[in-house]
Amino acid sequence: MKLNFELVPDSCWYSNLRSILSPAQWDVVRKDAYARANGKCVICGRECKRLEAHEQWEYDEAARVQKLKDVIAVCRDCHEVIHIGRTSLMGREKEASEHFMKVNGCNYAEYRKALGEANEAHRRRNLVPEWKLDLTYLSKFI
User: Fold this and answer.
1) What pLDDT digit, counting tens, does each position of 70-97 carry?
2) Assessment of whether the complete model's pTM goes beyond 0.90
3) What is the pLDDT of residues 24-46, one digit of tens each?
4) Burial of 81 (0-12, 13-18, 19+ CB in 10 A)
5) Best CA proximity match to 17, nearest among 52, 47, 45
6) Bridge partner residues of 52 (DSSP)
C-alpha cells in the first residue's frame, strides 16, 4: 500500500521534532522535505499549494529504539490517514477512509484489515515502557 497508518506509541505522543529542534532548525528540515516533493504530495502525487511535513519513524521493539527514518511532504488528506486516531477524534474518519481506499485502490474490507494491523502494531509498541530516540537522520542538517 502506498498510504499507510502510522500509529505512534502512546508514550511518544506530543513529542515531535518541532518540540526538540529550534524553530530555525525545524524550518531547515521541513523545507528540505518540501523541496524534495517539488509541490506534490510524496504519497498520492497530488499537487498542493500547502504541503505538511510528516515525520516517519521506525520502531525496533527488541532494542526499544524509535528511529527517525525521514521527514516527508504530504497533503492534508494523506496526513489525516497517517494519523487516523487523531483524525477519528476530529470526526473525519469517513473522509480519511475514502482517501485511503482511493490512493491504495482498495475496498473497505482491505481498509479495515490494514487498520486492524496498524492497531495491533500500536498495541505491541505500547508494551515498551520507554523508547530510546535515534535522530541520526538529522545529522545531515545539524
Assistant:
1) 999 999 999 999 999 999 999 999 999 9
2) yes
3) 999 999 999 999 999 999 999 99
4) buried
5) 52
6) 74
CB-count burial class (<10 Å; 0-12, 13-18, 19+) for 138: middle
> How far is it, in rounded angstroms, from Cα 102 to Cα 81?
12
Smallest CA-to-CA distance from 4 within 65, 66, 61, 58 is with 58
DSSP characters over 46-113: -B-SS-EEEEEEEEETTTTEEEEEEEEEE-HHHHHHHTHHHHHHTT-HHHHHHHHHHHHT--HHHHHH
Distances in whole angstroms, Cα of residue 31 to Cα of each of 13, 68, 106, 117: 23, 17, 32, 32
SS3 call for 132: strand
Question: d(Cα 41, Cα 64) in Å, to the nearest integer?
Answer: 31
CA 26 to chain centre: 16
How large is the C-alpha radius of gyration of the chain?
15
| Phi, psi of 2, rounded to the nearest 5 degrees | -75, -35
